[in-house]
Amino acid sequence: MAIRDLLSPSRWKRPRHAAPEGQRWYAIGDIHGCYELLNALIRTIDSDDEQRGVADTRLLFLGDYIDRGPNSRGVIELMMKLDLGDDKVVFLMGNHEEVLLATAEGNRRAAALLHKMGGRETLLSYGVSAQDYDYADPPGIVDMVRSAIPREHLDWLAALRSSYRAGGYFFAHAGIRPGIPLADQAPSDMRWIRRDFLSHAASHGPMVVHGHSVTTEIDERANRIGIDTGAYASGRLTALGIEGAQRWYLQTGTPDA
Predict the structure, then answer these.
(1) String of b and e for 70-90 (b: at least 16 CB within 10 Å)?
(2) Which Pfam families has this protein been placed in (predicted)?
(3) pLDDT score of 2 more than 50
(4) What is the CATH number of the domain that holds 191?
């Protein structure tokens, strides 16, 4: 083979797992009502982005903005301010948002599940008193969600995407169903799947970036990257940075007061 053939641009291959050319992505893991941690991580991202120089910078949030932590309302309001209505900032729906929306629609089983998943903290952040909540049954929780959470907040949550593709990366809150084409993935799987996805070692094609399954450290494998580091309990909220074939991680270290 001639040297000129080796140097031909047609032989230059971008790595399989690379961001679209010129784009710099920051994907943020499960926030769970940790408003102060979110603000701290955004400041860290701003600083990191500035140090790395000019690029088409984009943010992606992997879902689970609510429950467990102390200020779900503050998180949602900040998310809505960041929403520019384009792909510069992408928001995915997590299973916690799905349960809240089902509760708002009157689903009593969802209301009971919301309680088990940390919905008490969400409703307290919207002004519901602890005493009223602690005496509520599932129908009462439905009423509280409907009366305490502004309709515009619920509408915003209902419009969230289930997944997003950027170059060699595929983002979904919980992961994907192995063996199913990406275009045919069920939203419920992408918000809830756990064991079948986590135990699958073969390639999914693109690198799948997810939250949902808490790990004490960043969970990077050959076919997936998990960045839910349990912010509400650990005080560490994690972001994955991607540019070209490079990737790096940013974390907060100060728990909510």
Answers:
(1) bbbbbbbebbeeebeeeeebb
(2) Metallophos (PF00149)
(3) no
(4) 3.60.21.10
Tell me how long the chain is: 257
pLDDT digits (tens, 9 = 90+) for 88-136: 999 999 999 999 999 999 999 999 999 999 999 999 999 999 999 999 9
Q: Residues 13-41: pLDDT tens digits? A: 446 799 999 999 999 999 999 999 999 99
Give the span between the Cα atoms of 114 and 122, in whole angstroms: 10
Phi, psi of 197 (to 5 degrees): -80, -50
CA distances from 65 to 31, 34, 124, 207 (A): 5, 8, 15, 23
Distance from first CA to last CA of the chain, Å, rounded? 65
C-alpha–C-alpha distance, residues 208 and 170, integer Å: 5
**Residue 37 belongs to a domain:** yes
How far is Cα 136 from Cα 145, in angstroms, rounded to an integer? 12
> What per-residue confidence (pLDDT) applies to 13?
46
The packing angle between helices 95-104 and 108-116, to 10°, is 140
Q: What total of structural domains would you count in the chain? A: 1
217 inside domain? yes
Residues 6+ apart with CB under 8 A from 183: none
Average pLDDT in the chain = 94
CA-CA distance, 158 to 96, in Å (whole number)?
12
CA pair distance 115, 98, nearest whole angstrom = 13
Please report where in the chains the tokens 């560490």 appear, as a residue: 236
Residue 239 domain boundaries: 17-55+165-257
